[in-house]
């Protein structure tokens, strides 16, 4: 595993490159550039955000945003799903964090029942770390086409028709079908 080491503002920063291998250091902010995630409308999407140090973040603040929209904020156990106010209505009841992963430095979130309107650029910010860290993810939610549903419906109708035909043939072969 390659590691990039930066010396910036009298701080030694260490980070593993993301999938694209791009890491940018800007003033005192370590920014790991965008990963792209493509999902179908109605499915769940897990947006990745993890510290390379794998330090326990159960008592840390991290904040997920889509532009200026508040998606999910976690601050030492207090978050939108347990009483914290301020979450954008578009995301209420659909976003959660991976509680068991916090002790491994993982602040990834899960968006359930994705909508096309969820598409966009998301940031995961750790503002109180020294230096602060930001991760970016581009989410693309593809609309399920009418054509796609018609294919599924056609397969289901074909399967039901086949089962009915097999049942009728079986009835005739057993002689239980009576002519009037």
From TrEMBL:
Q: Where is the Ig-like domain?
A: 17-136
Q: Which domain of life is it from?
A: Eukaryota
For this entry, list what GO says about its biological process: regulation of cytokine production; T cell receptor signaling pathway
Where does it localize?
Membrane
Gene Ontology CC: external side of plasma membrane
Q: Provide the alphabetized UniProt keywords.
A: Immunoglobulin domain, Membrane, Transmembrane, Transmembrane helix
Q: Which positions, given as ranges, span the membrane?
A: 148-170
Q: Name one GO molecular function term.
A: signaling receptor binding
| Predominant location category | membrane
Q: Which InterPro entries match?
A: Ig-like_dom, Ig-like_dom_sf, Ig-like_fold, Ig_sub, Ig_V-set, IgSF_BTN/MOG
Q: Protein name, please? A: Ig-like domain-containing protein
Taxonomic classification, please?
A: Eukaryota, Metazoa, Chordata, Craniata, Vertebrata
């Amino acid at each position: 595993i390659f590691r990039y080491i930066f010396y910036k503002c009298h701080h030694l920063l260490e980070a593993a490159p993301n999938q694209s291998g791009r890491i940018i250091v800007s003033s005192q902010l370590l920014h790991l550039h965008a990963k792209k995630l493509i999902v179908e409308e109605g499915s769940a999407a897990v947006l990745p955000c993890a510290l390379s140090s794998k330090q326990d973040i159960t008592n840390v603040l991290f904040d997920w945003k889509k532009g200026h929209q508040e998606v999910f904020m976690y601050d030492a156990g207090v978050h939108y799903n347990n009483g914290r106010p301020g979450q954008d209505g578009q995301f209420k009841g659909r976003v959660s964090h991976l509680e068991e992963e916090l002790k491994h430095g993982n602040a990834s979130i899960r968006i359930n029942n994705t909508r096309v309107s969820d598409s966009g650029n998301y940031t995961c910010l750790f503002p109180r770390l020294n230096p602060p860290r930001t991760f970016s993810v581009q989410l693309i939610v593809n609309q399920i086409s009418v054509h796609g549903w018609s294919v599924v419906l056609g397969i289901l109708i074909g399967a039901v028709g086949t089962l009915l035909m097999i049942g009728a043939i079986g009835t005739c072969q057993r002689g239980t079908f009576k002519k009037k």
